[in-house]
Amino acid sequence: MKELALNKIHSDRLSITPELLLLLTPLTFIAGNWYLSAMSLLAVLFFMLIRYIRFGDHEFTIPNIVPWTLILGWGLYVCYITPDPVIAVKYYAGTILMPFLIFIIFDNLRLDDKILTHFFDAMLLSGVVLGMYSVYIFFSYGMREGMRVPSFWNDFNMVSAYYMILFMFNLSFLIKSKNNTRRIFYFFTIFFISLGIYLTKTRGVWLAMIISIAIFVIKRPKIIIPVILIFGIMVLAFYNIIEDRFLSVVNFSQDKSSLGRLQAWASTVLIILKNPFFGYGFDTYHLLQYDVMSYYIVDVPHPHNTYLRTIQEMGLIGTVFYYYLIIKAVFYSFNFGKYVNDTVYIKYLDGLQLSLVALLVAFNFEPYLSLFGGTTIAIWILVALTFRIRKNARNQKQEAIHHLNN
Description:
The chain is an all-alpha fold. Helix content is 75%, strand content 0%. It has helices at residues 2-12, 18-22, 25-28, 34-55, 65-81, 85-108, 113-140, 156-176, 180-200, 203-219, 224-237, 239-250, 256-274, 285-292, 306-334, 343-362, 375-405. Helix 15 runs antiparallel to helix 16 (343-362). The longest helix has 31 residues, at 375-405.
């Protein structure tokens, strides 16, 4: 025991710790490049393994081993059927292997209130940088009507989902915070994150936010006033563009973008029906789309739907494996009250629930679990964090019961 305690002291004195490196990961999201975010997380895992091998001051666990074995195994099959081996390796690494490693990282990190606070502060600051740059681009190009701005990312739909995640946590922190300094910080960050969301003009994300917050209001009626205030300010400030995007939904049959998305969904369904259970391989929609339709209203290089893309690529069997942990995380987010009573974690629960519910809606409109930007890594961090918080809460509850019995 004495040796273990000394090892822990030595490991805590390391100048570079996995927890410290983790705080750099949110800053990589500014670039919107999944390679950069993946390298940051691999550095965290590398130093975590060094600490474990050198000091052995805690257990090193591999969580949810059965689901991950199925996902990793089926992913290899999808690689095998993918026509382009380079694309196969990239998608396996980015959408399957990295999420698995994210689960390992978050299951073994020494997470406490200080680390989590700094981590989400870094996330919010990344959103501020993205939002500020979007505003800069918007004014640099003369505030063109209808202009959509992706900030540093290449795709405005992808960055919009990242903004959405940040907005949900920002809103939760703002409502729960009792510290005036923190409130000022959260007002500052939510302002620029909201501007970023507005400038992407992504209707699917707006709809996802409305539905998720509506569910939140039903559960917590007391927060209706701050929610109405925030959305009221947004509507007043950006009435023209909101009206324009709303009318594009009302006049669906005249909106080229909407019709193109509808055609992408229909063609994907037709492709899936030819081979529903086993899929066609990663990023293969563009190779098959003209087999089912000869003309497309707009260029659609992907199905514009996360669920349909996954089914088309991995088949129904692989999709069940892949979404199992995501759906379980959503379920956990609605049942945290049975386990979590530690104030260290409670303030993060609403943000997790809001984000996960909103993502389930947003998945209907864009392929967010892809390599377009850093959304896949950001989403799987949320899922892994949900499992970790529940694990800690269950362990604390079991320890409390054991203490009472003894």
